Amino acid sequence: MATQKMLKFVDVGREMPEKRSAEERSDDFHEIYQEFAAAKAAEQASRCSQCGVPYCQSHCPLHNNIPDWLRLTAEGRLQEAYAVSQQTNTFPEICGRICPQDRLCEGNCVIEQSGHGTVTIGAIEKYITDTAFDEGWVEPIRPAQERGESVGIIGAGPGGLAAADRLRRMGFQVTVYDRHDRAGGLMIYGIPGFKLEKDIVERRNRQLEEGGVEFVLNANVGEDISFDAIRGKHDAVLIATGVYKTRDLDIDNAAAKGVIRALDFLTASNRIDLGDEIPDYADGELDAKGKRVLVIGGGDTAMDCVRTAIRQGATSVKCLYRRDRTNMPGSQREVQNAEEEGVEFVWLSAPGSFVGAVEGESGIDTPINDEQAHISAVRVQKMRLGKPDVSGRQSPELIEGADYDEPAEMVIKALGFEPEELPRLWGVEGLEVTRWGTIKAEFGSHQTSLPGVYAVGDIVRGASLVVWAIRDGREAADSIAAYLSETAQVAAE
Q1: 2-135: CATH architecture
Q2: Please, is 120 exposed, middle or buried when counting C-beta atoms within 10 Å of its C-beta (0-12, 13-18, 19+)?
Q3: Does the reported pTM lie above 0.70?
Q4: Domain 247-416, CATH
Q5: pLDDT per residue over 147-201, tens digit each?
Q6: 342, exposed or middle or buried, with CB in 10 Å at 0-12, 13-18, 19+?
């Protein structure tokens, strides 16, 4: 009987939720997709083929039971669909909004491979949990039994919060430390509101706090509180700091005035959206309004920057990327959204140097060699793709003599992130790191070289996806629970 509700992909076409027009959405930071109606969500879920080997599930880092909750949605059993979704994912409403589904579940959907168009998995996942919150199905965290052991979590991003949720539900006492004044990490300060509105993150933060998770904010480890103090206070510690050190350009004047870091730009914009006062935004340094903006990079952070600059009222926004469209790491869906909003992509291009002049002096369009000079243009080097590198992607090669100057008053570096030197910054001995500077942790258990200390997310993987951080946090929570239970048993003996 259930199968009669499914396998509709031959008769029913793929539809995403209605998207607000580019003209309308470019003026605000609200999410661009409307909500599915119940009938439309059920219709789109019914397109699932319920295949015997669900590639959508195997290609999801969390191995979500996607076919099951699609079937339940198609049958109108939304509360059960939410329960199934929540079993494997701590924050399904967030993953439904920001996961690159085109590279994960939807990109590996069987009916997509057969030419019928993928099931709109992410939009349905978002709809299920938003409905659950609206209907009051999301229950508060109430541990069946309290445990005396405590866990300190450094970092309130997706990995740390996922671990906090899971550990608290088991009854452990959990304290989350974060350097910022709000919990959420990049979900609150890095990802723009048009992809993830901040009340969605704050709603989960409230659930954790009301469930007994303690948050210690404005706590920069190594400055405001020592790592040893946190370790001494708790029975286990989880490091989930993420990676915040910006990769820089390998050119002589990479720090010219008017050249800013992507994270500074996005954080300021998100803080303004949250109602904060930001001096560097007020004086124009981090505000793109009225400026010709160039964003350097081709990942998801670059996409966030170009679309934010459009909303701030930039005169023009261009994205320089050294490879072509096919080889860019960012979501193709995001590229399409950006193009609709007026962003121009300049493929096979890289910055060679910055051009500018000292205010009040002549000499515009000369290479910047004065610390008071402000950028007026980027000297762009044209590239071509050569032989594949070690990753299998074609390496960009410089085309000699094809340079030109691209006018710009603001340049945003969105080149990715690297780990900070935590052992040095925190004064910790014995915390092993890899040659890339990430913390060395055991696969699966997430145990570091220090007893009772675990690490998850980008500080272990390098810059990665929110969904991978959630998976790591959930796995580490289980490892920490096993470690503390074993420790308690040994002490009892």
Answers
A1: Orthogonal Bundle (1.10)
A2: buried
A3: yes
A4: 3.50.50.60
A5: 999 999 999 999 999 999 999 999 999 999 999 999 999 999 999 999 999 999 9
A6: middle
